Amino acid sequence: MGRVSKKLKIGLTYDLRDDYLKEGYGLEETAEFDLPDTIEAIEKVIFDNGFIADRIGNIKALTRRLAAGNRWDLVFNIAEGMHGFGREAQVPALLEAYNIPYTFSDPLGHAVSLHKGITKQILRDLGIPTPDFAIINNAKDIEKVNLPFPLFAKPVAEGTGKGITALSKITTRKNLQKVCRQLLKTFQQPVLVETYLPGREFTVGILGTGKDARVLGALEVILKPNAEKNAYSYENKEHYDKLVQYVLANDDEAQKAMEISLMAWRGLDLKDAGRIDLRSNVHGVPHFMEVNSLAGLNPVRSDLPILCSKIGMSYHKLISSIIKSALKRTKK
User: Fold this and answer.
1) Which residues are CB-neighbours of 288 under 8 A, at least 6 positions away?
2) Nearby residues of 108 by Cβ (< 8 Å), 6 or more positions away
3) What is the C-alpha separation between 137 and 229, in angstroms, rounded?
């Protein structure tokens, strides 16, 4: 990215995992929140581009800063939020109230994408393949599920594999009751139950917005023999270096996964950068599973930077491209 004559002031909004752990939240509850080295890495890229970086913090810190009269030319937002289906939309919505531009998707995009059931309904209507599913809002809904086994169950609005274990693959109605009731109790939100797909698993990186959006590549997620079975679970993601192998894929099946991902990204009108997860059925046809409109950006641990490293894109280039995409939107 070329340097500009005026030094733009870019704020950074984020949720630090350590802050929430100190408040008594658990490891799984805070799995989506950021480590200090993520903030440091993004800040360095901002500085290297000749901009001014200003660490803001979480939404409460942002609220205090806005009330004090602070403003920014752009906010690099990676704040996940803690509560509600709109938790990822809270910072963008607050910034829009003050007409301050920001990176990544708008409040609507984040809110829709966080609720996996609503996302799947929209994409199914657009003709994008996604496994058949049911939404369990309460225990009475479990009996109404009329899908063939095996099934797969997970919280409807969590990321980073939260609530997903080897038991998420369900083969009997008795286990369906047990798993769904436990998820309803633990996460206090609906449960998504969908047809289990036994094929290859891909995560696809997207960069850009609308017609400018493009696929970066597809990583095949391969579980090692000692990994937790059946899924890219919370445990497997936390210990990815020992349990998971990431392979850059470009065969026909992977190409189809990338095609579907770009259609989904544009169909949901998401912005700047993110990831889409897919899994193939028994016939080798990739199906949309979920989208991460606020993808993790840790330079070492997060899937999107891992993908970029495998295609030869530096972390500096990734973050710079995200900023460039956001700034381009602000000029329209």
Assistant:
1) 120, 123, 128, 129, 130, 260, 261, 264, 276, 278
2) 89, 269
3) 27
Do you find a cis peptide bond into 150, omega within 30 degrees of 0?
A: yes
Q: Is 163 helix (H, G, I), strand (E, B) or coil?
A: coil
Q: For the structural domain made of 9-103, what CATH number should be given?
A: 3.40.50.20
Q: Give the residue range(s) of CATH 3.30.1490.20 domains in the chain.
A: 132-195
Structure-block tokens of residue 184? 């309803």
pLDDT band at 332 (very low <50, low <70, confident <90, very high): low
Residue 165 CB: number of other CB atoms within 10 A? Answer: 17
Which residues does residue 54 pair with via DSSP β-bridges, in sequence order? 11
**Superfamily name and number for 132-195:** ATP-grasp fold, A domain (3.30.1490.20)
**Which residue ranges does the chain devote to CATH 3.30.470.20?**
198-330
- CA nearest to 223, candidates 213, 211, 214, 235: 235
- For 231-245, the pLDDT digits (tens) are 888 888 888 889 999
- Sheet with 244-249: list strands edge to edge: 244-249, 214-223, 201-207, 273-280, 286-292
Confidence of residue 1 (pLDDT cuts 50, 70, 90): low
Collapsing DSSP to helix, strand or coil, 175 comes out as: helix
Please name every residue paired with 154 in a beta bridge, in sequence order, or none if there are none.
Answer: 192
Specify the pTM.
0.93
Which pair of structure tokens corresponds to residue 61?
């810190």
The pair of three-digit structure tokens given for residue 123, joined into one six-digit string: 């994409």
- Cα–Cα–Cα angle for 154, 157, 163, rounded to 5 degrees: 35
Question: What is the crossing angle of helices 59-67 and 90-97, to 10°?
Answer: 10
Query: In CATH, what class is 198-330?
Result: alpha beta
- Helix then strand then coil, % of the chain, to nearest 5: 40, 20, 40
- Reported as a single tens digit per residue, the pLDDT across 17-59 is 999 999 999 887 888 899 999 999 999 999 999 999 999 999 9
Neighbours of 22 (CB within 10 A): 9
- Please state, in angstroms and rounded to a whole number, the distance separating the CA atoms of residues 109 and 112: 5
What is the C-alpha to C-alpha distance for residues 42 and 40, in angstroms, rounded to an integer? 6
